[in-house]
Every structure is written in C-alpha cells, then in structure tokens.
Amino acid sequence: LLVFLSLALPGTQGKIIPRCEMVKILRRNGFQGFEGTTVADWMCLVKYESGYNTKAYNDNGPSRDYGIFQINSKYWCNDGRTPGSKNACHISCSKLQDDNLEDDIRCAKKIAREAHGLSPWYGWKNHCRGRDLSSFVRGC
Fold first, then answer.
1. Which one from 41, 65, 103, 104 is the annotated catalytic residue?
2. Out of 66, 89, 102, 124, which could bridge 107 as a Cys pair, Cβ 3.0 to 4.6 Å?
3. How do residues 49-84 score in pLDDT, each as one tens digit?
4. Dihedral through CA 89, CA 90, CA 92, CA 97, nearest 10?
5. Is 49 a catalytic residue?
6. Any catalytic annotation for residue 35?
7. Which one from 49, 79, 103, 104 is the annotated catalytic residue?
C-alpha cells in the first residue's frame, strides 16, 4: 500500500532511513528494554508501519496515521481534519512527517508507555509479535 501511495501521490516520499541507521537512532534513544520491548521489536514495527519512510501516512477513514511510527491523529496528534482529536502528544501531525525524529520518538514512547508495550500498532501485532526479530538488528 505504501509503495502505491508513494507512486500515486508525488511529494509524499520522505527520507527512507537505512536499517542500521534506524537501529542506531533507536539504541541512542533508549528503546532497548523500554516497556519490555527490544530495538528489534521497534525495527519490525517501523518496517511494517512506514517502510522506514519519514513522510508515510495512511488514511483510516476519519483519522490518519503519520510518520515513521504511524502515529494516529484521533488520539495523538492534531492534523486539523480529524473530528474529536485528543492530541495527547501535543503536536501537529505535520511535525511527525519531517526528518527530525525527536518529536516522533517522544510521542511513540508515550504511546508505548501508556499501552505498556506495542499493542496499539497493528503492523507490530500482525507481523512482529512473538516472532524471531533478530534479523532486523543483525550486523548493525
């Protein structure tokens, strides 16, 4: 789907973060052991949610998911178009689509902290949970 979106919507291609660079970013920002997760868990999540693309987005009807962690506008950010948005991360969704990942990381950690894990992310639940994810960090 993301491949189709990037072809259908010019200008949606953000920075595709190389795998080992993303591993370093996650390690540097304390994701190993965070809420019982591993860097490999987060790497798998990012692969299946956004394909490592900082500008990724996905429409979910009335709400939309934004950025490398695919953070939802109904609960976590404000995109000015989602009715009843909670904006729990106190951030504009557009900030989740730039190449600066600091705010994305803060919000993703808030989501994981509140959920005590990665269950809010369907990409992780459907493709990563309970699997051997060592290949996501191997060699990095």
1. 65
2. 89
3. 999 999 999 999 999 999 999 999 999 999 999 999
4. -30
5. yes
6. no
7. 49
